[in-house]
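Input record, target 12 of the design panel.
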C-alpha cells in the first residue's frame, strides 16, 4: 500500500491535505515539523512527501536531499506560502517534484498527488534564481505565482541544464529576454557571457557582421577586423531576439551554426568554431512566416527543440497584485522616495486595464506614477495617462472585473466537466459556487484586516451570513 507523509506546521493545512486525500487507498501520516518529518521518513520511507513551508531553509533542503537518496528517491510536493520566484524555484532546484502555492485547492492537490504517484519516476528539477545582494529582485527575476507562470518556472528548470536550443514565444513586453537570461543563469554556462541581439533593430546589411564579425576591408567602412557575437559569446548563451525579422540568407548561416557550430567572418576565409547555446525569441507566428516563405522550416525545427510560450498579462490577472507591489518597491527604491502603498481605487484601476503592452507597459506606468506622486500613496491622480485612455469610473472597473470573473468560472467549469469521471452536474455547480463565495469572502476579510463588520458591509451581506460562509469555507 502506498503511504503519504504530510509535513506541515499548521494543523489546519494538515487537516485539509488529509481530507483531500481521503479518496485515495493509501496510508496518510502527519508530522508537525521538518525534523519530525525527517525521522518519520527515515523510519518508514513514504511513497510521497507533502511538505508545507515558506522559503527554502536548511531543514527543508535537508529533507529534499534525504528524499533524493537511496535506490528509490521519494518525490516531494511542496505547499508554499511564498509569493516570490526565488522561494518557489528554490524548492524545485533543491529537488522537489512539484510546487503548489497556498492557499491550496483540494481538488488541485488531489489531481497533482495522483499524477505524482503515477509518474514519480519522471521527476525533474526546475531552476533557482538567486536573490540579489541588496534584497531587490534582479533584472532576471520573473514575478508570478499564477498556474501559468508556475508551469513556466518548471519548464525553464527542466531545460536550463541542457544545451538544447529554445524558442521563446510571446507578445511584446511579456518578458522573453527575462526567460532567456533565467535559462542562462541556471545553466552550466552561467559564468560565461550572455549576449542579446535584436534582429529587428539592426539593419540587415549589418546584422551578419554583428553576429559573425568581419575582416578588415570586407565592406566600405570596415577599417579594422571585428569579432562578432558568436566569438564573443563562446561558451555562453546568445539570444536572437525577434528572430522572425531575420533574412533568409542570415537564417541559413544560423542553421549552419546550430548544425556544425562553425562559421566565417564576413570577408574572411578562416572557419571558426563556437560553443554557444542559442535561444531565439519572437512575438510573431513563425508558422505563418513559413507559409509566406519568409522563414526556413528547417531552422524553425532546429530552434524549436524546446518551446516556451509566455502568456499575455491579461491572461494571468492573478499576478497583477504581485507585479504592482514589486514595481512600486523597485522604483521607490531607485528614486529614493518613500511610497507607503497604493490606494484601493488605484489598484482597481490598474487591475481593470487590458495592458496591451503587457508587463513592460505596467512597469512603465508604475515608474511614471512613482515619479509623479507627492503624497506617499499612489492614487488615481498619479495615473492620469490611464484614466484618459478610457477608464471613466468605478462602473467600468466593476464591469471589466466581472467579465474576467465570468470567464475564469467558465474555464474552471469546462475543466471539471471534461474529467474522465466527472462528479454529478449538481456537484460541479455547487462546487463552483462555493469556490467563488470562498474567494470573495477571503478577499473582503483581507481587504479590511479581518474586520467582519466592515467586510460584511462592503459585500452587502449581514455579519451572520458572512460568518456562515466562513464556516463553510474553513
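The sequence produced for target 12 reads:
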Amino acid at each position: 500500500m502506498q503511504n503519504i507523509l504530510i509535513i506541515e506546521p499548521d494543523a489546519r493545512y494538515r487537516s485539509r491535505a488529509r481530507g483531500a486525500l481521503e479518496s485515495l487507498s493509501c496510508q496518510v501520516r502527519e508530522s508537525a515539523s521538518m525534523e519530525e518529518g525527517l525521522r518519520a521518513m527515515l523510519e518508514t520511507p513514504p511513497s510521497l512527501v507533502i511538505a508545507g513551508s515558506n522559503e527554502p531553509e536548511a531543514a527543508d533542503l535537508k529533507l529534499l536531499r534525504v528524499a533524493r537518496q537511496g535506490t528509490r528517491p521519494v518525490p516531494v510536493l511542496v505547499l508554499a506560502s511564498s509569493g516570490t520566484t526565488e522561494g518557489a524555484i528554490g524548492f524545485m532546484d533543491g529537488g522537489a517534484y512539484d510546487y503548489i502555492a497556498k492557499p491550496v485547492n483540494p481538488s488541485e492537490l488531489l489531481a497533482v498527488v495522483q499524477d505524482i504517484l503515477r509518474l514519480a519516476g519522471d521527476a525533474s528539477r526546475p531552476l533557482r534564481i538567486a536573490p540579489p545582494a541588496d534584497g531587490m529582485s534582479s533584472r532576471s527575476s520573473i514575478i508570478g505565482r499564477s498556474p501559468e507562470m508556475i508551469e513556466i518556472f518548471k519548464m525553464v528548470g527542466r531545460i536550463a541544464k541542457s544545451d538544447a536550443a529554445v524558442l521563446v514565444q510571446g507578445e511584446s513586453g511579456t518578458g522573453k529576454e527575462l526567460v532567456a537570461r533565467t535559462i542562462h543563469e541556471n545553466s552550466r554556462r552561467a559564468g560565461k557571457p550572455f549576449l542579446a541581439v535584436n534582429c529587428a533593430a539592426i539593419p540587415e546589411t549589418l546584422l551578419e557582421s554583428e553576429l559573425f564579425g568581419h575582416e578588415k576591408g570586407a565592406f566600405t567602412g570596415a577599417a579594422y577586423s571585428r569579432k562578432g557575437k558568436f566569438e564573443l559569446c563562446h561558451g555562453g548563451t546568445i539570444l536572437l531576439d525577434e528572430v522572425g525579422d531575420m533574412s533568409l540568407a542570415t537564417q541559413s548561416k544560423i542553421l549552419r551554426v546550430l548544425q556544425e557550430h562553425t562559421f566565417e567572418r564576413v570577408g574572411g576565409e578562416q572557419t571558426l568554431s563556437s560553443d554557444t547555446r542559442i535561444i531565439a525569441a519572437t512575438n510573431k507566428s513563425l508558422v505563418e512566416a513559413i507559409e509566406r516563405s519568409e522563414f526556413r522550416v528547417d531552422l524553425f525545427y532546429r530552434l524549436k527543440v524546446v518551446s516556451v510560450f509566455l502568456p499575455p498579462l491579461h491572461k494571468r490577472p492573478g499576478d497583477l497584485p504581485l507585479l504592482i507591489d514589486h514595481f512600486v518597491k523597485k522604483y521607490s527604491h531607485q528614486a529614493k522616495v518613500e511610497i507607503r502603498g497604493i490606494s484601493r481605487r488605484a489598484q482597481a484601476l490598474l487591475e481593470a486595464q487590458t495592458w496591451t503592452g503587457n508587463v513592460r507597459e505596467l512597469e512603465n506606468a508604475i515608474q511614471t506614477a512613482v515619479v509623479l506622486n507627492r503624497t506617499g500613496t499612489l492614487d488615481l491622480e498619479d495615473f492620469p495617462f490611464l484614466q484618459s485612455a478610457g477608464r471613466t469610473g468605478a462602473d467600468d472597473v466593476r464591469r471589466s472585473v466581472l467579465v474576467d470573473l465570468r470567464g475564469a468560472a467558465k474555464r474552471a467549469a469546462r475543466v471539471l466537466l471534461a474529467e474522465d469521471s466527472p462528479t454529478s452536474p449538481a456537484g460541479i455547480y455547487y462546487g463552483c459556487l462555493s469556490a467563488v463565495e470562498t474567494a470573495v469572502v477571503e478577499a473582503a476579510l483581507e481587504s479590511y484586516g479581518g474586520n467582519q463588520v466592515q467586510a460584511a458591509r462592503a459585500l452587502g451581506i449581514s455579519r451572520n451570513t458572512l460568518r456562515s460562509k466562513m464556516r463553510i469555507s474553513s
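The CA atoms of residues 395 and 401 lie 10 Å apart.
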